[in-house]
Amino acid sequence: MMRKATFFSILLIPAAASFIFFSQDKNLQESMKRGKEVYALHCQNCHMENGQGMEGVNPPVAKTTYLKDTKKNIGIILNGQTGEVVVNGKKYNAIMNPMNYLDDKEIADVLNYIRNSWGNKYPIVTPAQVKAEREKPAKTN
Ligand code: HEC
Fold it and tell me: What's the rounded Cα separation, in Å, for the pair 39 and 69?
């Protein structure tokens, strides 16, 4: 009896774990697919199709350490960004307008796309995380 239970848990735990892993991966793949369209419509003009940006004007979103901070990423889309930033060792000082007209899902999707394309690899962002940031009182920096 005991042995049988152990036998099944040896088989089933890894099966369940890999199921969770694969379904998360599938969520990410699907979100990225939608995010690619959001990117093409709302971001690509400035950050370019390959995420390289335009030197001296718009910073790259490919392989930038900026993407490490999920909350900050969400904040940049919701609140825009101005002032000098150094991205991958180069200075930029221009204006990215707030894009809070994108809904929570669109923002999560576009972030999943840029955070997992062009060599980037960061954890999945959910619409709930975007909602939480949106509902925070505006920052003044
Ligand atoms: C009008 C051009 C423009 C558009 C459109 C735009 N951005 Fe930006 N983005 C910028 C600029 C300029 C900066 C840097 C602002 C500064 O100088 O502080 C920036 C900064 C960023 C950063 C932080 C720095 C970095 O390079 O990692 C991220 C992430 C980002 N943008 C993502 C996006 C996403 C996603 C979209 C689409 C939803 C988008 N941007 C749309 C111009 C743009």
Answer: 19
Is any ligand 1 atom within 6 A of the Cβ of residue 99? Answer: yes
- The span from the CA of 120 to the CA of 112, in Å, is 10
Each residue of 31-77: pLDDT tens digit?
999 999 999 999 999 999 999 999 999 999 998 888 989 999 999 99
| Identity of the amino acid at 60 | P
Mutate to test the pocket of ligand 1, among 44, 57, 58 (most ligand atoms within 8 A of CB): 58
CB-CB contact of 93 with 71 (8 Å):
no
- Mean pLDDT computed over every residue of the chain: 91
